[in-house]
Specification:
Length: 249
């Protein structure tokens, strides 16, 4: 790869939250970043903020049939995909017995099946080049049990297993696969949720040894590290970026 050809990354759910933070870090480090998501208006606004190295592409990852064409279009336009960050996901808080089969399937489809399908299509183009990096976004819900998010917990735990299986199969072909498990990351939404639930707030900070919430940039920096040559001997790991939450007591 010559210096004139920047690396190309896809970040799903890149229009806001952790996806936006990851895209932002990539762009700051000279990586051409395609942010994909369902909300074109949100994507365009994010693209405006991130500048010319960022490209906004509407894509609903849960529409599996559309994914091969989506990847094909990117390959035709940009020539290659060096990095894929599977960040798009949905959550649903409901009591266990209230979760319908449709609810459960919807979360699994978006958080797990689409990650598999999109990765498969991207890997088809990475294999001939014998290089590539895939980063999946896991969760504390895969590190320990969280109530009222049964489908989400199932999907993220499966992501961890899939990350390891993909890494073992693909790494001999130069494709590294890792995951990031964010802890409690500050956003207006999480802050509001915790402020309205003092008991949960005390629990979160009580089991986070650092005693603070993380910032979205912490996840962006971790993703950039895993995608960079500094991590060239790292594959198949699920990296908690959580202030010690997953090992806290």
């Amino acid at each position: 790869m010559t210096a004139t050809h920047p690396k190309t990354a896809i970040v799903t759910g890149g229009g806001s939250g952790l996806g936006f933070a990851i895209a932002s870090t990539f762009v700051q480090n000279g990586i051409q970043t395609i942010i994909a998501g369902r909300d074109k208006k949100k994507l365009d606004a994010a693209q405006q903020q991130l500048g010319e190295l960022c490209i906004a592409k509407a894509c609903d990852v849960s529409d599996l049939a559309s994914l091969p064409g989506f990847v094909q279009q990117i390959i035709q336009t940009y020539g290659q995909i060096d990095i894929l960050v599977n960040n798009a996901g949905i959550n649903m808080k409901k009591d266990f017995t209230e979760v319908t089969d449709e609810d459960f399937q919807q979360v699994i489809l978006t958080n797990l099946t689409s990650v598999f399908s999109l990765s498969r299509e991207v890997v088809k183009h990475m294999l001939p080049r014998q290089t590539g990096c895939i980063i999946n976004i896991s969760s504390m819900a895969a590190q320990y049990g969280l109530p009222k998010v049964i489908a989400y917990s199932a999907s993220k735990t499966a992501i961890d297993g899939m990350t390891r299986a993909m890494a073992v199969e693909l790494s001999p072909n130069g494709i590294r696969v890792n995951a990031i498990a964010p802890g409690f990351i500050y956003s207006e939404m999480t802050a509001k949720a915790l402020d309205s639930d003092p008991e949960r707030k005390a629990k979160v900070f009580g089991r986070t040894p650092m005693g603070i919430m993380g910032q979205a940039t912490d996840i962006g920096n971790a993703a950039y590290f895993l995608a960079s040559d500094a991590a060239k001997f790292i594959t198949g790991v699920v990296l908690p970026v959580d202030g010690g939450n997953s090992i806290g007591f």
